[in-house]
Amino acid sequence: MPFGRYKNPKIVDETNLRLVRGALSHARVIGADFSRALDFARGDALVYLDPPYYPVSDTANFTGYTSDAFGIDDQKRLAEVFRELDKRGCLVMLSNSDTPFIRELYSGYDIQVVYATRAINCRPERRGPITELVIRNYR
């Protein structure tokens, strides 16, 4: 999520942190390139991938959470990792923007349209629900 400006952010939410700790007690969370999932994922794994979304227009230029952009080649590499995880028997779920390019990359998989609300846009009339994709190798 892009850095925001908050008047009174709740930095420590002890109750929520304890619940998250319990939910993730058997999970492995790694801070690394997404391809590292291939080093750990076995057939009984559920892998959720939430990359920087592919731009929906020429002016939509948020493509990363770091100074390195997440471009077309990265999206293609991500699709290759998705397919490899599928071959290994993992349950794989990915979210991304609803564009012809993303639909093409994941054709053959279960593609569901979901609606997400966007409150940030330089043009107020473009704020509101937009379509996104949830792509899975299972139903």
From TrEMBL:
InterPro entries: DNA_methylase_N6_adenine_CS, MeTrfase_D12, SAM-dependent_MTases_sf
Catalytic reaction(s) noted: a 2'-deoxyadenosine in DNA + S-adenosyl-L-methionine = an N(6)-methyl-2'-deoxyadenosine in DNA + S-adenosyl-L-homocysteine + H(+)
Coiled coil: none
GO MF annotations in UniProt: S-adenosyl-L-methionine binding; sequence-specific DNA binding; site-specific DNA-methyltransferase (adenine-specific) activity
GO biological process: DNA restriction-modification system; methylation; mismatch repair
Organism, as annotated: Neomoorella stamsii
Keyword tags: Methyltransferase, S-adenosyl-L-methionine, Transferase
A Pfam family annotated for this UniProt entry: MethyltransfD12
This protein's name: site-specific DNA-methyltransferase (adenine-specific)
Enzyme Commission no: 2.1.1.72
Entry keyword annotation includes Transferase: yes
Gene name as annotated: dpnM_1
Top-level taxon of origin: Bacteria
